[in-house]
Amino acid sequence: MAVLPIRITGDPVLHAPASPVESIDDEIRALVRDLFETMDAAPGVGLAAPQVGVPLRVFTYGWIDEDDREWRGVAINPELWISPLEPGMPDEDEESEGCLSFPGERFALRRAERAILRATDLEGEAYEISAEGWLARIFQHEYDHLDGVLYLDRLDDHDQRIVQKITRKRGWGRPGSSWMPGVDDLEA
């Protein structure tokens, strides 16, 4: 297992749709192990293959809910259905999220309250999870990565300007930009 460098906004792999996984083989199993290791080292609650430079429709997730239930798994070639968005502005305290591809920052973003994830696991078995709240948010965030969409792309104009300033200040926004979980200090 290995911790992989996480690509930062601006890298082309983050802004293009990922390709379906054709077969679950040793290469995919190794990728999933590395995704979990990298996600845990970051630390994060989800990580999509494009975030480590692999343009495949795979993401991992790991989160413990308020009832101490652990949600941990892999979604291969997922499909996602979401409930309609509630109108209004997002709540800064309840609806802020971050991204390992834009580390150290959080912005409020309205997401659907419910989602249904259908995917395949590492054994090739299909599964379905009906999620609410934070788990639904995780699924939406990671699924977006598979379509080449960062949560930053969904922010309002005001937050978009802040993102652009941060990107310039930190020298991000260019191909090949990445950081190494457990090694790089990104609090600059």
TrEMBL record:
Catalysed reactions, as listed in the record: N-terminal N-formyl-L-methionyl-[peptide] + H2O = N-terminal L-methionyl-[peptide] + formate
Active site, renumbered: 142
Membrane-spanning parts: none
Alphabetized UniProt keyword annotations: Hydrolase, Iron, Metal-binding, Protein biosynthesis
Listed EC numbers: 3.5.1.88
Xref: Pfam families: Pep_deformylase (PF01327)
Binding site for Fe cation: 99, 141, 145
Protein's UniProt keywords contain Hydrolase: yes
Signal sequence residues: none
UniProt keyword Hydrolase, yes or no: yes
Cofactor annotation: Fe(2+)
Protein role: Removes the formyl group from the N-terminal Met of newly synthesized proteins. Requires at least a dipeptide for an efficient rate of reaction. N-terminal L-methionine is a prerequisite for activity but the enzyme has broad specificity at other positions.
Family matches, as NCBIfam families: pept_deformyl, PRK00150.1-3
Family (UniProt): Belongs to the polypeptide deformylase family.
Name of this protein: Peptide deformylase
Annotated source species: Agromyces tropicus
Gene designation: def
